[in-house]
Design a protein that fits this description.
Elements (H helix, E strand, L loop, with lengths): L2 E2 L13 E2 L22 H4 L16 E6 L3 E6 L18 H9 L4 E2 L8 E7 L2 H12 L4 E9 L6 E4 L24 E12 L9 E10 L6 H8 L13 H11 L6 E9 L6 E5 L4 H9 L4 H5 L8
Parallel strand pairs: 6-11
Antiparallel strand pairs: 1-9, 2-3, 3-4, 4-6, 5-6, 7-10, 7-11, 8-9, 9-10, 11-12
Length: about 300
């Protein structure tokens, strides 16, 4: 039986629109700050090792979670790049261009969401609004909540304050000083559910996994993935900082290949109306499939009233 540690909730959203189209060109609004919107890394380009006939690739479904005349928030599926890059010359679909095509105007990215991570992604509809949102990200006033499936069972909440050296790409960062000092990185972590399944993924006869809530207070590159690896609870599906044996077991046993990390919600102040905003997305279907495989049945999940975000 799983160990219930905290309600997580599975709030169901009715999605207003689905993007199925894309175009080629767009303006980009970028800021040179790890906490904000960063360039695509070569690690993101290694999301899939399989060569694909791009003519046969279907556009992913990008769901709008909130839209007004100033901002738009979408659910970015795992595997979709945020914007164009010289590292992504063979890619056809990008969250920024697809969002632009739906809302009918240029959109400006204001924060980072790695290619293999799914979840809430926020855009501004003008450079002025983008600048105001970026200031909120820069002063860490925006509250971000993630869910992740990790290796092993976790039983105690905590805060990890562990500085991270900047990760460099051979191409994208070839002019950056490799001796740059480590930057402060702070993450709150909270265990939600634990499971043990009777299948070996290594030297033990069973395998243990956990569901955790992660709240980053800084936005360093791959911060959550690196911090969980530091805690010896790497996120499942992390091909850079994770456990290769566990990733292979999870992929082969459950038949799903992804990074098990989702940006569940964003809380911020609307840059124009000054109203408090809380945008939350639902879990993709494959999360519920894994929950069932872990023995977290419908009765247990439905008894959890809502995801606690405070």
């Amino acid at each position: 039986m799983p160990t219930k540690l905290d309600p997580i909730g599975l709030a169901q959203y009715k999605i207003s629109k689905v993007i199925k189209m894309t175009k080629d060109n767009d303006a980009e609004y970028s800021l040179d700050n790890d906490d904000l919107f960063g360039q695509i890394s070569s690690d993101d380009m290694n999301y899939s090792a399989e060569d694909t006939d791009l003519d046969d690739v279907q556009p992913p479904h990008v769901e709008i979670l909130f839209e007004d005349e100033h901002i738009v928030a979408i659910h970015k599926p795992a595997g979709l790049l945020v914007h164009r890059s010289y590292l992504a010359r063979r890619e056809r679909f990008f969250a920024m261009q697809m969002t632009r095509d739906l809302v009918g105007c240029h959109v400006f990215p204001v924060h980072r969401l790695d290619r293999p991570t799914s979840g809430v992604l926020l855009f501004a509809k003008s450079s002025e609004v983008a600048r105001a949102l970026c200031e909120q990200f820069a002063d860490h006033s925006i509250k971000k909540q993630y869910l992740a499936i990790i290796r092993g069972n976790m039983h105690e909440s905590g805060r990890l304050d562990y500085a991270l050296k900047q990760e460099f790409d051979d191409l994208g960062d070839k002019h950056v000083d490799p001796n740059k000092a480590a930057q402060q990185a702070v993450t709150d972590y909270q265990p939600l559910l634990n499971a043990e399944i009777p299948f070996s993924s290594g030297r033990y006869p069973s395998s243990r996994f956990g569901l955790v809530r992660l709240s980053p207070h800084t936005g360093r590159k791959h911060q959550l993935r690196r911090h969980m690896a530091h805690l010896r609870h790497p996120i499942i599906g992390d091909t850079t900082h994770g456990d290769g044996k566990q990733n292979k077991f999870f992929r082969e046993h459950f038949g799903i290949n992804r990074l098990w990390l989702i940006a569940k919600s964003l809380q911020f102040t609307h840059p124009v109306t000054q109203q408090p905003m809380h945008i939350e997305t639902e879990l993709e279907a494959e999360w519920l499939d894994i929950f069932a495989a872990f023995g977290w049945d419908d009765d247990q999940l439905s008894s959890m009233p809502s995801m606690l975000l405070s």
